[in-house]
Specification:
Length: 255
């Protein structure tokens, strides 16, 4: 966690002083990274920018948070001298919510050719996989849980037909499915209708029997609630953290 940004003035009132002290205590207790604003400022006879950690006047005279008359000194010294955690930090699971109301989310794909011109695209960060979708393409959920950076080098594959469907896992619906050995990293919509599925080759073997999740009448989500409400007000279908999405089924009567 990175706290950015916080600060307080040398001439702060009692309320702001209490807030600053409590904030520093919280940062120290939880070993949080932080950014202070502003680091450098100007002063004229110790007046002017009272927020800076270091301040200079026109003659180069320096005032700083470490001056004896700066009340912030005690808290600042406690913050900068606090023992932080050392060594390797175990990775944590990352969840990314997708929204493609106005633009595409993944910059690396935006820099390349438009893989589905004219459609709204929801695409995971490069080191994640798609794990959840919502009704009407209103949102998506990505994660690196269980397998960070699951993709292997190679071109992404856009699916716009049922050619790769091996079983009828959603009877009565049109199905777009990734090829064997690939997983979903995004999808696109036109209006409320699915336009295409974007698949990536996997760097590890993809195992496990497939199962179908439905979002037409309610949520199909893990009891853990991991990932949060990534499409508030819309039904969602979400895989477990140890699964991957391989396809989307939809009705061509909608949109």
């Amino acid at each position: 966690v990175w706290i950015s940004e916080f600060g307080v003035a040398k001439d702060a009132d009692a309320t702001d002083r209490a807030w600053f002290t409590n904030t520093v205590d919280f940062l120290v207790e939880h070993d949080l990274d932080f950014a202070y604003w502003p680091v450098v400022g100007f002063h004229d006879g110790d007046r002017g920018n009272q927020w800076g950690l270091v301040r200079y006047d026109g003659n180069g005279e320096r005032r700083s948070v470490l001056d004896p008359d700066d009340w912030r000194s005690t808290a600042w010294r406690a913050l900068t001298s606090a023992p932080g955690r050392q060594g390797v930090v175990e990775p944590v699971r990352t969840w990314s919510m997708l929204k493609a109301t106005h633009t595409d989310a993944n910059r690396s794909l935006r820099a390349a050719a438009d893989w589905d011109g004219g459609a709204r695209k929801l695409t995971c960060p490069d080191d994640q996989r798609l794990i959840g979708i919502s009704q009407r393409g209103q949102g998506g959920l990505c994660t690196d849980a269980g397998a960070a950076g699951p993709g292997a080098p190679g071109a992404l594959n856009k699916v716009t037909s049922e050619a790769g469907v091996t079983t009828d896992w959603a009877r009565g619906f049109t199905k777009y499915q990734c090829a064997q050995g690939q997983f979903m990293t995004g999808y696109s919509v036109r209006g409320d209708r699915v336009s295409a599925v974007l698949c990536a080759p996997a760097r590890v073997a993809l195992a496990g029997e497939g199962r179908t999740l439905w979002d037409d009448r309610g949520d199909s989500r893990p009891a853990s609630g991991e990932g949060g409400d990534y499409a508030k007000g819309f039904h969602k279908a979400q895989c477990r953290a140890d699964e991957y999405a391989a396809g989307i089924a939809f009705s061509t009567a909608i949109g």
